[in-house]
Specification:
The structure is a single chain. The radius of gyration is 18 Å and the shape is globular. It has one domain. By secondary structure, it is mainly alpha-helical. The chain is built from twelve helices and no strands.
Length: 259
């Protein structure tokens, strides 16, 4: 059997970053060549950088709406609409599936069955409503365009930086799911993810960065603990739930600090 040529190390990081962009957003980048077996796991190291970019895009929309003298609440909702459009609602969908599964299933098998169902139940709808409402209220409280831009960049990075930690420290809840196919990232990938998330947060928030990092860690750990308790591991939906919980928690914390 002929082996596919591997990506040269000096170009691997660009391929990993491109895959991270394709995985987390709707941006139609073209990936060159076949993917290596560990490509998805390696790409997780770059998730915070992609998250920061998504946040900056949302911040730019808020600045534009402010220039047009739109009130803070509709401006915040337009920002969140932009984030959902850029990501294809990936994380919101995961949070809704987790809420439906954890809230409606009696045992692990039933919870996982509900989470795999494409239909959204009452728990899922409520999860999306609360996620939008909490983030919109935080952005409304921040109000000032520069504060919103920096908060979205930091929360975007932090909320995706924990995904590699979850994937490294927890087993997949099912053997045939997305999380299992992605694989377990190596320690270097986790370190890269945390370093990028920390660097973006420090650059954006300055003295408020430690508070944001602590809040993000607690929110991500809470979701991971619930996932271990409810289904014995993680799934792709758990990543989405962790992202939504972390982003909302960081934005609320910054609103409390800065408003």
């Amino acid at each position: 059997m002929t082996e596919e040529p591997s990506t040269p190390p000096r170009f691997r990081w660009t391929a990993d970053l491109a895959l991270a962009v394709v995985f987390l957003t709707r941006i139609p980048l073209r990936l060159s060549g076949p993917l290596a077996e560990d490509a998805h796991a390696r790409a997780m190291g770059w998730f915070p950088l992609v998250g920061a970019g998504v946040g900056l895009a949302g911040g730019a929309v808020y600045a534009l709406t402010a220039a047009l003298h739109l009130p803070p609440l509709p401006a915040a909702l337009l920002v969140l609409g932009t984030l959902v459009w850029l990501t294809g609602g990936l994380h919101e969908d995961g949070a809704a599936d987790v809420a439906d599964g954890f809230g409606g299933g009696r045992d692990k098998a039933r919870k996982l069955e509900i989470m795999r169902d494409s239909r959204v139940g009452s728990y899922g709808v409520l999860a999306i409503v609360f996620s939008i409402a909490l983030r919109a209220s935080a952005l409304t409280a921040l109000a000032e365009p520069r504060a919103v831009l920096l908060a979205l960049a930091a929360s975007g990075a932090l909320s995706r930086g924990g995904m590699a930690v979850i994937a490294r420290t927890m087993d997949p809840a099912r053997a045939d799911g997305l999380a299992a196919r992605q694989g377990r990232p190596v320690v270097a990938t986790v370190a890269l993810s945390l370093a990028l998330a920390g660097a973006v947060t420090l650059a954006a928030l300055g003295p408020a960065a430690p508070v944001a990092v602590l809040v993000a860690a607690l929110a991500g750990a809470a979701v991971a603990w619930q996932a271990r308790r409810q289904i014995g591991g993680h799934t792709g939906d758990v990543f989405g739930a962790a992202q939504q919980a972390t982003e909302a928690a960081v934005l609320l914390a910054l609103a409390a600090l800065w408003s």
